[in-house]
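Example record used in the benchmark description.
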Amino acid sequence: MLSFKNKRGDIESIIYTIVILFIAGFILVFLSMFALDIYGRLGEGLDAAGYNNTEARDAIITVEGYENSIWDYVFLAIAISYTISLMILAYSTQTNPIYYVIYGLIASFGFIVAVVFANIWEKLAEAPQMVETIARFPITNLILDNYFPLFITVIILSVMVLLFGKYVGAGEGGLG
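Model output (structure tokens):
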């Protein structure tokens, strides 16, 4: 069970973010693929029944259009919200700057994980069954395929700056 107490932009949080972003993109693409299949079967059912109601077809097309675009923005919202939450948590924690180099070296493991997940996503996007579905997710594909290692590196560097770059003045609770 995950413990959310005392989470403050640490390495575990970055690895969780990498994994959750990849899984969220994967799930959203597969749900969209299944929804597209359902819309196609609904259209086939209307054709087979001889039901000639253009309002029903228009409703299916409208819902399909909204569904196609909204899930891509849902993924973008998930990615941005995880990034912002990591930055807020990193800023709100006092840490000794001595650990900056150690944090950077260990965080490079997150970069390696991001490269592996980007390669997995690229192979998934090249699969013939997924080409049409992935084409409807330009933002998700851009982040998880082309720029995932860069995106994670920006998150790591931002967290490092916010975690270790704060001025800690002499005063109550300060280190100086």
